[in-house]
Amino acid sequence: MKKNQVCQTEITGMTAEGNGVCRIENMAVFVPRTAVGDILEVRIVKILKNYAFGIIENILTPASGRTTPSCPVFRQCGGCAFQHVDYQTELQYKENFVRDAFARIGKLTPVFEPILGSDSRYDYRNKAQYPVAEQDGHLVCGFYAKHSHRVIPFKECCLQPEIFTKILNYLLPALESAHISAYDEKNHSGELRHIYLRKGFYSGEIMLCFISRVSVRKKIKHILPDIQKHFPEIKSITESVNPDKTNVIMGKNISVLMGAACITDKMCNCKIDISPQSFYQVNTPQAEKLYQIAKRYADLHGNETLLDLYCGAGTIGLSMADSVKSLIGVEVIPSAVENAWQNAEQNDITNAEFYCGDAGTITETLLKKKLSPDVIVLDPPRKGCDDLTIQSVVQMNPSRIVMISCNPATAARDAAKFASSGYITEKVKAVDLFPNTAHVEVVLLLSRQNSENK
Ligand code: SAH
After folding, report:
1. For the residues of 176-238, what is the DSSP string, one character each?
2. Nearest C-alpha to atom 13 of ligand 1 is from which residue?
3. Which of 47, 115, 286, 304 has a C-alpha 20 to 30 A away from that of 351?
């Protein structure tokens, strides 16, 4: 196989990253923006030891399910993977990713409940973090091109609320007039790294956070009242200084420039305060459905002790608090834990408490204090749970574990570890929180095999 060679081929599979797979000269070739069943001419663009990458040279026979992408920068932007297929096809791919992860990585055979699609395929995101760059002497922001840090400026993004675009169109010239420079990653110079926006789905309240290498507070002070006058929905303007050479977006601290430190929204009928550093699911109505499935799996009767690990601002546990005797949440980000306490209080939930720290360390401590929850909810970040957390959870001996994860691969890996300690994965349901992207959420029910122990 040679670079630039063009071959006729059929796409026979789809990877969890959203690349179509074909075999050419006995080698797997990954081709983005293709559909299973496409007959194509593919140009080989990169050859590695065991696989290669190609791009579409020509579509000879399109697969059923192909459709026209609605976004003009779909080909350049790294955000979406599936705009070229209809939603049913996208859901089918995602269901397969999940089944495949559990079979291949977890070696498990749970019951798979059908995937739950999102009511809206567009406009669902409540959050965006736009990298800022300078192009042709002007500040621009947009998204990174796939596998790169080149900023693709966009006029609008169909996954996000329209008002975000309006705010950016207003902000960029205002920031230019305040002589704000864009952060330059290569030289680690310049000022503004990202503009971060979040909108409460039900409340409509907007949070604006400037993420900068060095504080721009003094330089932009005079433009803030105008921003709020133009966009009264903006209830909170903050700055996070991140002086490090890093891919991590947020700095360690947040300071309020104008308005409140948080915005308020609603989830599962709970009033929820969220600070910029608190995790908050990006697709609110779909996350509410996810939490309802988690609650069904938790099978609560009002007398349980519930441990909610990786609880963020407390959303999942608080949505179940009316059905348990007591709720304990654990989360590592201090401002999220503050939100969680506040969220319990403002919803008159008095049976909840929250601990700030590492999930494994705190669970181990709670275990030593003889805490014995009936049900444990785990909602770890993409990398999954560490061994200390898994061991401590197992030793707590709950009847049921409900795991929620945005990464089916690590969820399957962790489910296999729980299986070797006597917890079988009974049910798995994929929930599409991120239409058009290759991401998919899963919720799992793990049950203790010999329930007589308790
Ligand atoms: N359950 C919440 C948040 C889930 S996201 C919700 O549904 O909104 C995962 C959360 O785990 C984040 O809030 C993150 O800050 C937290 N986290 C990451 N590593 C952690 C650790 N080692 N210990 C405790 N929490 C952690």
Report:
1. HHTTPPBPBTTTTBSSEEEEEEEE-TTT--EEEEEEESS--HHHHGGGHHHHHHH-TTEEEEE
2. 312
3. 286
